[in-house]
Amino acid sequence: MVNTASSKSLDQVVRLKRRTEKVLAELHSGDARLLPIKRRFQMLEGLCRGELAVLEGRTCSHSEAREKLLRTVRTRSCT
Hints:
By secondary structure, the protein is mostly helical. 81% of the residues lie in helices and 0% in strands.
């Protein structure tokens, strides 16, 4: 039930972001006043994805994340 609510909130943010991007595209793209609005939507979307990951158990400890990152860096530096 909680996962469904979080999924719905993520869907709502994504839909709102798409509509906002459509409106922003119609305006001048170089307008500096629009950048904070875009950034806020990016932050909201990231927060929703993070909440959903926590609810679905797709998280790990700091030490686990560090190990995964080190493995990735080592793998990429060897190629």
